[in-house]
Amino acid sequence: MRARRNGTWVPITYGELKNRVRSLSLGLRELGVMPGERVGILAENRPEWAIADYACLTARCADVPVYPTLPAKQIAYILNDSGAVALFVSNQAQLAKVLEIRAELPALRYVIPFEGSPAGEGMVPFAQMEEKGAAVAASHPNWEREALEVVPDDLATVIYTSGTTGDPKGVMLTHRNITSNVLGSVAALPLEPGESCLSLLPLSHIFERQGGHYSMLQQGAVINYAESIDTAARDLLETRPTVMLAVPRLYEKIYARALETAVSGSPVKRKIFFWAKRVGEAWADRSLAHRPIPPGLAIQRALADRLVFSKIRARTGGRIKYFVSGGAPLSAEIARFFLAAGLPIFEGYGLTETSPTITVNRLGRTKLGTVGLPIDGVQVRIAPDGEIVTKGDSVMRGYYNKPEATAEAIDADGWFHTGDIGEIDADGFLKITDRKKDLIVTAGGKKIAPQPIEALLRQNPFISQAVILGDKRKFPIALIVPEFAKLETWAKANNISGSTHEELVRHPSVQELLTAEAKKHLRDLAQFEVPKRFLILDRDFTIVGGELTPKLSVKRRVVEKRYESAIEAIYAEAELHPEKSAHSS
Length: 585
Fold this sequence. Notes:
With 585 residues, the protein is an alpha/beta fold.
């Protein structure tokens, strides 16, 4: 693995990693942390996160990853519910949160900071832990054999996942759960030893942890830790990875930026870009269908690649073999564009409760608009009400301290109920149509899946977030969060003043712009699916504000409640003034 330190990428070999894991694992034992106890990890992606994780697993205790974006109150709930006896902490900012709630954590005996040597009761610096373990290593010659005394159904980790309401639930994953999922996933998406990834998504989430952490080690790949989401573009160029996992929002931003660059360029450049896009997508469609490429199309695609697509690949470092997408629906239009550019995105599907991969597209077996085929060892079927259910060694043991919730999620026959609605085509590919509880049913009985519409809206460079609402209403509406940096640039160029975001979104010209931009992406929808009104919001959704989960999914019910009065005003106004289409809040 490699991490950027003071502008230089510092390597850690597999041998060094093993030695540090052994030292830290023995250090935990020296502290008195026993097999079966829980240890928290509150940190951003970095080598110490990986070392702490493997140290916990080899010490046969279960770790509890905590999103570093969480506020102190939510951290306290997770640590108390899991009964964590020790906690790894990355930096001063995270340590400050822990000190704020330390008195509320009776089970927590030790805090282990990655950086510095802070004083205080129970404070044991990370370096000191490694030294403790290294000092006793000679007296533990059988450390590796003892680590392997773990049995498949021992608890490996408790990962807290938050839904749209209520307290987060601790998902209990065993060594069997994770191992079976890794083996199934690497069989579907194999890598050669020596290849590399950029670790960008939070390791606190099972998607990155399984795909960008365990699976990379299993295949002998190099893990490069991005400094942050803001440095991803630079880190891609510097590390030149061959694979990367990301959520659709990243691909949407790259796509929107490519379109924006083309539209703002000279007429000639714009014409070349859209010609290349058409040629590339025609080539992509034939490739996906395993149909021969006509010589004329092959020549045009080669020219399009030289003029346009090679430049897009260069911005990713020039070595990407494929991307993997998960966590939310990926637009087929975006997937087709990336494939045309020689950057295939393999969309997959899974949940924390399934370790996570259930299905994934793969090389030579891809259908755009689907989430692929089940991986080895996983069964998938559609229940009579349309819900996707799954079974296999990857399905969690249950929710920590929540037997009722466990019984509700896993039926008597061992099928886990995902809460997603979907369908399986004749070739076995799974398509997600919506969340079971998010499906909108209008007053006229029309069913609308909001997530695909929201994904369409987010493709626009002026739109950061979108939420479709309208259950039991005459028609749907869209709540729009502008991409404020882009909007402010446009407002300045058009001599529109607004000292605050609130003033800016209230300006009639801004509302007209955002409404027009939103409608551009909705032309192919059925008429009943198209939002009839747009509520322009003056601030973005945040985790601290309660509108986002730690994995950045929108809490639809929270948003709807927060803007309840503005939403009611929109529907009331629609009765009086049916010709209007935008509103601000």
